[in-house]
Write a structure and sequence with these properties.
Elements lengths: L2 H21 L5 H10 L13 H6 L5 H4 L1 E5 L3 E6 L4 E5 L2 H11 L8 E3 L3 E4 L2 E4 L3 E3 L20 H5 L2 E10 L4 E7 L2 H14 L5 E9 L5
This protein binds zinc ion.
Zinc ion (ZN) binds next to loops.
């Protein structure tokens, strides 16, 4: 066994145990919910790597410093180490009961909204998977907007927002706007042109909504 890996394992297990300690300090389900609420985390129902308890434990966790990933269920918490070994912990009773209730939808304020905005990346189109709490919004795309899948639906035109298709390039300082258009086909043409002319530059197509200026 390499000493370095062992150290990482202890760090990972310690992190999970500390988080579980904090969650169970009151010893009941309401206490678990309170700790999660105060930590301002949210998560998805029935998702071992996306539930709110996972999100809580994942605070301050990085695969690099902990050398592991983990999943959370109402029965057990699995820590999977880089060398393929794993440690299975029993989910503490209050946490287990909380997860069961959470999966039934009993804690809507701890349930995450998914952004879902259409994004064009170098790997192809995908939906923004950012999660955020009810009452807050995606840091990149604003409030959850089901318009994502129908960017040019007629309803959009009359709304108080306009929807822009923005080509962005990354020249090493983060994403910068290159062109913006209300027409997706036009934006895709721009994107193709940038990709052909600046092969070294990562480019992507994102959608953004803007408040329309008031017509006076
Ligand atoms: Zn988003």
């Amino acid at each position: 066994m390499t000493f370095g890996e062992g150290d990482l394992k202890l760090t990972a297990v310690g992190h999970v145990l500390r988080a579980l300690d904090l969650l169970t300090q009151d010893g009941d389900v309401a206490g678990v919910a309170q700790v999660l609420d105060r930590a301002e985390v949210c998560g998805l129902q029935k998702c071992a790597r996306g539930c709110v308890v996972h999100a809580y434990i994942a605070k301050g966790w990085s695969p690099a410093t902990h050398g592991a990933s983990f999943s959370v269920g109402s029965g057990s918490i699995n820590i999977e180490f880089r060398d393929g070994s794993r440690l299975v912990l029993d989910t503490p009773d209050p946490v287990s009961a909380f997860i069961t209730a959470f999966d039934r939808g009993e804690y809507p304020h701890l349930s995450a909204l998914v952004c879902g905005f259409d994004i064009e990346t170098d790997e192809g189109p995908h939906r923004c998977a950012n999660l955020f709490r009810v009452g807050t919004e995606c840091p990149e795309h604003g409030p959850a907007a089901p318009i994502a899948s129908r960017p040019e639906a007629p309803a959009v035109a009359s709304s108080k927002y306009r929807y822009l298709h923005v080509v962005q390039g990354n020249y090493g300082q983060g994403w910068e706007d290159l062109t913006a258009s209300e027409n997706r086909a036009e934006a895709r043409t721009d994107l193709r042109a940038y990709r052909e002319n600046e092969r070294e530059t990562p480019t992507r197509l994102i959608q953004r909504r803007e408040l329309r200026e008031q017509q006076v």
